[in-house]
Amino acid sequence: MTVRIETNGPVWTVIHSRPEARNAMDPVSARRLFDAFVAFDDDPAASVAVFWGEGGAFCAGWDLKHAAGLSDGDDGVSRLEFGDDEGHSRGPMGPSRLDLSKPVIAAVSGPAVAGGMELAMWADMRVMEETAYMGVYCRRWGIPLIDGGTVRLPRLVGEGRALDLILTGRQVMADECERIGLCEYVVPKGDARRMAESIAHDIARFPQACMRADRRSARDSHGLPEREALVQEWEGSRGVVAAEGISGARRFAAGAGRGGDFEDLGDHDAPRT
Fold first, then answer.
1. Helices (H), 158-225
2. What is the mean pLDDT of the chain?
3. Residue 97 contacts by C-beta under 8 Å, 6 or more apart in sequence?
4. Beta carbons within 8 Å of 244's beta carbon, 6+ residues apart
5. Considering only the top CATH level, what class is 3-204?
6. Do domains 3-204 and 208-260 have the same CATH topology?
7. What is the pLDDT of residue 67?
8. What residues of the chain score a pLDDT lower than 50?
9. Domain locations in the chain as residue ranges
10. What is the pLDDT of residue 245?
C-alpha cells in the first residue's frame, strides 16, 4: 500500500510511501492520497492532518518513468476535470485541487520538487528539514505546473520571487524557503514529522469552529477588495461567537488562560463539524 493513515486522537498523519521512487507520484498513489484527504475532511473526529513522505523524500514530482510510457499525445491527466469526484476536484498529483475545511501541515524531508513542491504549497503550512529543498525541476522537461504551482507560489512569496523560481527551476534549500516565506519552520534532519505533529496537536486543542472560520477567511480573501473581504470575514464568523466565544469568555473569567497562557484553556467541547 503506497498510502496509509496513522491517527493520534484528532491528528491524522497521511503517509505517502514509495521510497524506491523518492515518493514520485503515480496514478494509483494520487488517487489514494486524494481519497485519504477527503476521508480526513469528512471525519468529524479529525481536526488537523500532517502530510509526510516516508523514506527521506517528501515527493520528487510526477513519476516520469510512468509518463515516459504514455503514448504520444496522451498526457495521462486529460480525464481529470474539475468537480469530477462527487463534487471534489482531483488533480494529477492527487489532492492538489481539494479545498478542505480543515488545516494540513506538510512535513518535508529531502526533495519536494516539481509536482511535489505543488503538493507542499497546497498545505496550509510547511515544516522543512534543514537538508530539504524545493524547486520547479520539471522546467527541464517541458512539463508545466498544473497542480496549483503558478497560483499558490506568487501568493506565498510574491510575484517576482515566484517568477524567479518558476522560470529558472533552480533548487531552493530550506533556509531560503524560510527566508522568502515558502516554509514556516526549519528543523534538524529527521525531525519534520515530529514537529509537524506537535504543531497539529497544538492547533487541535483550540475551539475548532472558530479556528476554521478564521482559516477560511484568510484563505478566501485573496483578490477581494478590502470591503468585500471584511464582509466575508463577518459573515463567516457570525455564528462562532455564540457557538464557542461566549463559553470561552466564561472560561477566561473563571481563571483559565490568564497572562497569555496557552496551556490552561479550561475544559471545552469544541464543535468539530
1. 159-168, 174-180, 192-204, 208-220
2. 89
3. 82, 88, 89, 90, 91, 147, 148
4. 207, 209, 210, 268, 270, 271
5. alpha beta
6. no
7. 65
8. 270-273
9. 3-204, 208-260
10. 64
